[in-house]
Amino acid sequence: ALMINYLTAGFEALRAIAEDPSIKVPILGHMDFAGAYFGGHWTGLTSMITLGKFPRMCGADTVVIPAPYGKAEILDERYEQNLKVLRYPFQHIKPTLPMPSGGITQGMVEKTMKEAGKDILIGSGGGIHSHPDGPIAGAKAFRQAIHAVMNGIEVRKYAKDHEELGKALGVWGTGKTALIE
């Protein structure tokens, strides 16, 4: 994929890249700097516009959105609205794949997929790279958590027979974490 921070590069830059026929890879819209747009209570635009409607209209294939159970400070209802605005029928504009992110660990996969569905990307950096056995084990633990959810198995139960996942849950549990603080 080609990642573009559309909020600092500009929506027009995202649109130009999306319409460029020489770009033949998915476009990932990153939301860094989004807090300046929707973080204030009395100023800015709603996150549904800055993280949903505008990047979708400009052609992003997937958009990073803050998840309320990671390090992001976003209301649950705003998160749910962001998920909806990326997917709902909208004229001729194709849906955009949501990418919940921001401090998500292996123990949050179950909740993330329950709330956001199975057709998502999960953004994780710290949960992979901070695993006690290193990033390969961190990636395996994420894959194990996803496999458990896709097969209807509780992540905690699956972790008992999968060392990497068990260690991740031992460090971070299944709730909001101070992983990145």
TrEMBL record:
Molecular function per GO: magnesium ion binding; ribulose-bisphosphate carboxylase activity
Residue stretches making up the Ribulose bisphosphate carboxylase large subunit C-terminal domain: 1-172
A Pfam family of this chain: RuBisCO_large
Protein name, per record: Ribulose bisphosphate carboxylase large subunit C-terminal domain-containing protein
